[in-house]
């Protein structure tokens, strides 16, 4: 394998230290993915330079012209502290004719808007929960065509931000209260969906034109307190002590038969292509007891830290973490923008 010059783009607050020995997990978790990627690419023998970015494309341009990377490893999830600007960074890299990892700008834009992606999937007869969108600044009114229980969350935020047990509501009044709360707290539009009870399944997919659907990964909820819904709240996602206490873990489900696995793989490929995704992505699903599958959302820039969904799925088919990151780099080198 030929060593490459790799420029890693991260938020300027998430530049990891060279050594994490002795640091508390609460600090490490903030930039764990960045640390995993940087250290692993160095272990693979690549010449790695990390660049912190917040709100200036000029620093990217200077690094591209100065370092002359073979590829930019894009870990940015926002620009100007705005997640809606995420796709503009990938677009800028394309304008600079710079190879980069991850999804293309169009796929990032579509996937980031949970309502737009659901409309596209629904058009292609892919099952999604019924939903309604509540922009900020408008008086909310509950539509008649969606039925409780409902889940209320940000239209744009990712990583379970703003999701808690209080996100599940059973009445119009509680729904509108939660909408108003999220408008005020997150300052984003809000999406309200019919809550689909079932197993939380993640499909990780890698590739460009030719894609590989990795084995499904399930978020197993262990022993949640009585009355709690099995949803990926912010606490479930980020609180390691809570996960350990409640035996919440990512695992490969062993009770799905071959027909169910084939169905999931076909669905994953369809979603990936319909939403114009490239590089790698994660599709979040709900699998009901009767076998029906609902698409919750597509994450075009998922967490690729070691031990996260993509990593767990790769290891299930013999792709270790080093190999996974090298594959991601190779897909970025092979990707070419098409009109």
What does this structure look like?
There is one protein chain. The chain is an alpha+beta fold. It is 35% helix and 20% strand. It has twelve helices and 13 strands. The chain has helices at residues 25-28, 32-43, 57-67, 86-95, 105-112, 114-123, 172-186, 234-238, 240-245, 258-274, 309-316, 321-334; strands at 5-11, 47-53, 71-74, 131-134, 150-154, 168-169, 190-194, 199-207, 211-213, 217-220, 249-251, 279-287, 293-299. Helix 2 (32-43) packs across helix 12 (321-334). The radius of gyration is 20 Å and the shape is globular.
Topology summary:
Elements: E1 5-11, H1 25-28, H2 32-43, E2 47-53, H3 57-67, E3 71-74, H4 86-95, H5 105-112, H6 114-123, E4 131-134, E5 150-154, E6 168-169, H7 172-186, E7 190-194, E8 199-207, E9 211-213, E10 217-220, H8 234-238, H9 240-245, E11 249-251, H10 258-274, E12 279-287, E13 293-299, H11 309-316, H12 321-334
Parallel strand pairs: 1-2, 1-3
Antiparallel strand pairs: 4-7, 5-6, 5-7, 8-9, 8-10, 8-12, 10-11, 12-13
Helix pairs in contact: 2-12, 4-5
Q: Estimate the global geometry from the Cα principal axes.
A: globular
Report helical residue fraction: 25-40%
Order of helices and strands: EHHEHEHHHEEEHEEEEHHEHEEHH
- What value does the Rg take, in angstroms? 20 Å
- Percent of residues in β-strands: 15-25%
CATH architecture of the largest domain: 2-Layer Sandwich
What is the terminal separation in angstroms?
31 Å
Uncertain regions: pLDDT < 50 for 5+ in a row?
none
CATH H-level superfamily title of the largest domain? ATP-grasp fold, B domain
Integer average pLDDT: 94
The SS-based structural class is alpha+beta
Q: Regarding CATH, which class of the largest domain?
A: Alpha Beta
Counted by DSSP, the helix tally is 12
CATH fold category name of the largest domain: D-amino Acid Aminotransferase, Chain A, domain 1
Main sheet? 6 strands, antiparallel
Work out the count of structural domains: 3
The number of strands is 13
